[in-house]
Design a protein that fits this description.
Blueprint lengths: L13 E6 L3 H9 L5 E7 L3 E3 L4 H5 L9 E3 H4 L6 E5 L2 E5 L4 E4 L4 E3 L2 E4 L3 E3 L17 H20 L3 H7 L1 E5 L3 H17 L13 E6 L10 H13 L2 E5 L3 E5 L2 E4 L2 E4 L2 E4 L3 E3 L2 H5 L9 E2 L5 E2 L2 E6 L4 E2 L12 H19 L15 E6 L2 E5 L4 E4 H14 L3 H17 L11 H4 L6
Parallel strand pairs: 1-2, 1-9, 2-5, 9-21, 11-12, 11-17, 12-13, 19-22
Antiparallel strand pairs: 3-4, 6-7, 7-8, 10-18, 14-15, 15-16, 20-21, 23-24, 24-25
This protein binds flavin-adenine dinucleotide.
């Protein structure tokens, strides 16, 4: 069966199917405006998600609706775009068909795969129930619930050892997400929660950030890593370097042969691309990212593009284009340019060239680090810049105002308004958590 969903344009128009309405996919659609095509945007979720601020939902600083927008609404003025809420399960590249869940098929002339990535457990997927990762809104609200429930249970726990375990929060992986989580949980425990509890002193919570590599923020310049580590330690977080976590369970984690008993463990290490390479039986790297040509097409299939976190392409110096939002957006815009050139009978644009604007991460306590390459910033000035940049990249005036107001409120009063446990006391707990 082929899908009967079409946009307003005649069916004879070149049909571009874009899978994934993340940063890359949306940018492709955006840059195809007024091109002689009809477009079908397929996503298994109904919303576009601003992942860089997910950790703020996980730590009760922002509400889910402040960082996500319905895809259908974002594309409402594009009459040539049909939006499908569906999950892609397979691709028949010879017949140029995409198979959706429930078995329906979608024909394409050009296919853009922008299906992103998920966290990876380095072959230990069984750790996921004990150490959830952060990728979706559900992940964020699950983590938020676990953090808040741990404090609630600690408040009612008479046994000191059990209370200590409830008030221990472990974050595995000290990339930007791990650092941001550790810093914000420390702020939550030290500044936001103390007045709300009677039996516990939330300031005594242990926040332990464990990293297998030699430093936090490994993608940043070394002095910024050192600065970030010291800032975290000043906030009261413990930073463990050079020791991989070798086990996650109901008890907590094992690293360096030691068991650290902790009720809450959050996974912020490792990335696994979506199975786009498997659908196409195309070459991929160890993280499952599809190896694409310099024009972002799949080898042997010029009608299929793969972009963003789902793909890997080298820069001229051999280093891979990083898996970050600006890279996905640049790739999305480039693909639209190639499609336009082809349809207009013009020569193909020069190979994709990534322009790196810089790396940003917040640390907590109104501090951040920014590495622009040509200049490095740290501290409060970097934090303000980080804040303005993120507000600028959010979609819509309402969300920008709402996020800005929330941040100002946190800045002024240390209060986080999204401290909600939404799935019931038991639903949030880790299996076996007591
Ligand atoms: C917690 C976190 C923090 C981050 N922080 C930053 C940051 O500070 N700065 C930065 O630049 N980058 C950051 N990133 C990385 C950045 O978000 C990604 O690089 C970017 O989202 C990649 O864009 P994409 O379009 O490739 O994929 P995504 O934005 O992940 O979008 C993929 C889309 O594909 C859909 N999809 C997946 N599989 C299917 C399927 N089978 N069928 C249909 N639809 C499907 C998904 O629902 C999703 O909407 C962060 C990522 C995370 C997880």
């Amino acid at each position: 069966m082929t899908s009967s969903v079409t946009a307003d344009d005649p069916v004879s128009l070149h049909h571009v199917v874009v899978v994934g309405a993340g940063f890359g996919g949306l940018e492709t659609v955006h840059h195809l405006a007024r091109a002689p095509v009809r477009i079908t945007m397929v996503d298994r979720r109904n919303h576009h998600l601003f992942q860089p601020l997910l950790y703020q939902v996980a730590t009760a600083s922002l509400a889910p609706s402040e960082i996500a927008w319905p895809i259908r609404h974002l594309l409402r003025n594009r009459r040539e775009v049909a939006t499908l809420l569906a999950s892609v399960e397979a691709i028949d590249k010879d017949a140029r068909l995409v198979r959706l869940d429930e078995g329906s098929m979608l024909e394409y002339d050009t296919l853009v795969l922008a299906t992103g990535a998920r966290h990876a457990y380095f072959g230990h997927d069984d750790w996921e129930p004990f150490a959830p990762g952060l990728k979706t809104l559900e992940d964020a609200t699950t983590i938020r619930g676990r953090i808040l429930i741990a404090f609630e249970r600690a408040e009612q726990e008479g046994d000191e050892t059990k209370r200590a375990a409830l008030m221990t929060f472990v974050i595995v992986g000290a990339g930007p997400t791990g650092v941001e989580l550790a810093g914000t949980i420390a702020e939550l425990a030290r500044a936001t929660l103390p007045a709300d509890f009677r039996n516990i002193d939330s300031r005594k919570a242990r926040i332990v950030l464990i990293e297998a590599g030699p430093r936090v923020l490994p993608g940043f310049a070394e002095d910024l890593s050192t600065y970030a580590q010291h800032a975290l330690e000043r906030l009261g977080a413990e930073v463990v370097l050079g020791l991989p976590v070798t086990e996650c369970s109901t008890k907590g984690v094992v690293y360096g042969g030691k068991t650290l008993t902790a009720a809450t463990v959050i996974w912020a290490a490792g990335v696994q691309a979506s199975p786009a390479a498997e659908w196409l039986e195309a070459p991929a790297d160890r993280a499952g990212r599809l190896k694409v040509e310099p024009d972002l097409t799949v080898p042997g299939h010029p009608e299929i593009f793969a972009i963003g976190d789902a793909a890997i392409v080298a820069r001229p110096d051999g280093r891979p284009v990083p898996g970050i939002a600006p890279a996905a957006k640049q790739e999305g815009a480039y693909v639209a340019k190639v499609i336009r050139a082809r349809l207009g009978g013009r020569p193909a644009p020069a190979p994709f060239r990534y322009k790196h604007a810089g790396d940003l991460a917040t640390i907590g306590e109104r501090r951040a680090v920014i590495d622009f390459g040509w200049i490095k910033l740290r501290g409060a000035i970097a934090w303000w810049l980080w804040g303005f940049a993120h507000i600028y990249f959010l979609i819509g005036v309402h969300n920008r105002l709402s996020v800005a107001l929330n941040w100002l409120w946190i800045y002024a009063r240390d209060q986080r308004s999204a401290r909600l446990i939404t799935r019931g006391r038991e639903g949030e707990g880790r299996s076996g958590q007591s």
